[in-house]
Design a protein that fits this description.
Helix 9 (about 170-190) packs antiparallel against helix 10, helix 11 packs antiparallel against helix 12 and helix 12 crosses helix 13 (about 325-330). With about 475 residues, the chain is of the alpha+beta class. The protein has helices at about 5-15, 45-50, 80-85, 90-95, 110-120, 130-140, 145-150, 155-165, 170-190, 200-215, 275-290, 300-315, 325-330, 355-360, 400-405, 415-420, 455-460; strands at about 20-25, 30-35, 40, 60-65, 70-75, 100-105, 125, 215, 220-225, 245-250, 250, 260-265, 390, 395, 430, 435, 440-445. Bound molecules: glycine and manganese (II) ion (2 copies).
Length: about 475
Amino acid sequence: MFDKEVYTKRREILQNAMSGGIVLFLGNEEVSMNYADNTYRFRQDSSFLYYFGLDAPGLAAVIDVDENRHIIFGNDVDMEDVIWMGPQQALQDRAKEVGVEETLASDKLTDYLRQAIEQKRTIHFLPPYRNEHRFRLSKLMGITDPFLTAHVSEELIRNVVAQRSVKDNHEIEEIEKAHAVTAHMHMQAMVRARPGMKEQILAGLIEGIALAGGASVSFPVILSTRGEILHNHSHGNIMQEGDMVVNDSGAESDMHYAADITRTFPVSGKFSDRQKDVYRIVLQSQLEAIDALKPGVPYKDIHLLAARIITQGLKDLGLMQGEVEAAVQEGAHALFFPHGLGHMMGLDVHDMENLGEDYVGYDETVQRSDQFGLAYLRLARELQAGFVLTVEPGIYFIPALIEQWKKDRKHKDFINYKKVEKYLDFGGIRIEDDVLITEEGHRVLGKPIPKEITEVEELCSKG
Ligand code: GLY
Ligand code: MN
Ligand code: MN
C-alpha cells in the first residue's frame, strides 16, 4: 500500500471536485469458478484500490461530500474464518492505514443509503461491470437492473477519469516494477522458444514468472504463432522452424499496476528476409510514433502517423499502392493494421475501460471515428504530462479479411491483392511498449527489452 496520505489526498481531491451528495465505491467480491468455495484469484476493483487502498473482498466505502465523512463498510472475521484463513487484521486498523477513521459493519450500508435516499440526496456510483455489483447496487439503491445504468453518475466518472489519468511518481514506480517482471517474461520467452515446442510451455512459463514476481498477469497471456489473430488466448500450436511468435503479455505489480508489452520473435532464432522486411516497418512506425509523443498532441495524430509509416512501408514492398495520405484517409491500411495504436494504462491494463472508453480516450475536441480500424482507437485525445499509454503498431495478414476485401474489391486502388495473397501464411507482427508523457516530451518506461532485429536474434539464440 502507499502511505495513508496518498489515499487521503486522492479522496480530498475527489470530494472537492464533486458538487455534493454521497460517492459510493463497491469493492469486488470473491467469484466462484466451479463451486462456491473454489474461487478465482481475487482482484480488487481498481477505483476502490485508488481511493481506499484495501486489497480484500467484502468491502464498500463512501465519501459523504456534504457531511465530510469517509467510511469503510466491512466485517471483521469470526473464529471460523480464522480457522480457514488465519488471523486477520481488524477492519478499523486496516482502515487507519489508508487514512479512514470511520468503519461500519457491512449491513449498515443499506440503512445508510436508504436514509440518504429518503433525504433525496444524490448517490453517485460508477458503472457496474460485474453481475454481483449490479445485483448489489439494485438492492442497495432500490432500482431494478435495466434502470441502473441510467443512474450511473457521469459527474463521478468524469472526475475519476480526470484524476486517475494523471499518474504520480509513486504510480510510475509501481508500473516500472510491473515492467521489470514483464521484461523477464519476454526475455525468457525468447531464450526458451524452440521448434517442436508447444506454445503452452512458453505461456505457462511466463505466467509463472508474473505470479512469482508480482500479483498476477495484467491480462490473459496472448502468445501465438498465429500472430494475425489479434487477441489469441489459445496456446495449442506446436511452434515450427520459420514461425514467428507474437508474445503480448504483462505482469501486475503487488499493488496491481499493470505493464503491457508485445514482442515478436523467430522460433528458430533467425528472421527470414520476408519477415525482416515487415518487422522493420512495424519497428519504424513504433519508434517514430514514440518520438512524436509530447503534451498537447492528440494521440489520434500519432495513430495516423504510424498508419502513414506502415502504408509507406507496405507500398515500398509492393503490397500497397497509390498516394499514402489518401490511402490512410480512406482507411485502406486497416487491412493490415486494423486496431488502434494504443490505450491508457495504470491500475487497469486498459485503464478505466470499465468507466467507458469514450470518457477515457475522447473528449469534446475529438469524436470517435466510425471508419474500420480507426474506430478501435481507444485513446484519441490530447496528451497530458502524467499520462501512461501504450504504443503498439502491428502488421497482420488475416486471410479471411483479405479474401473478403478482395471479393468486395475494397480499396482496390490502394491494395495490390495479387501480391498480398502471397502473404496469406505470414501471420502477424506487433511491437508494444509503455510510455509516460512528461513535461518535456516522453519517457519509455522500464529497462529496454530487445526489439531491434539483431538484439532479438541474439537473445533468441542464447537458449
Ligand atoms: N494486451 C492487450 C493490448 O495490448 O491491448
Ligand atoms: Mn498488449
Ligand atoms: Mn496494449
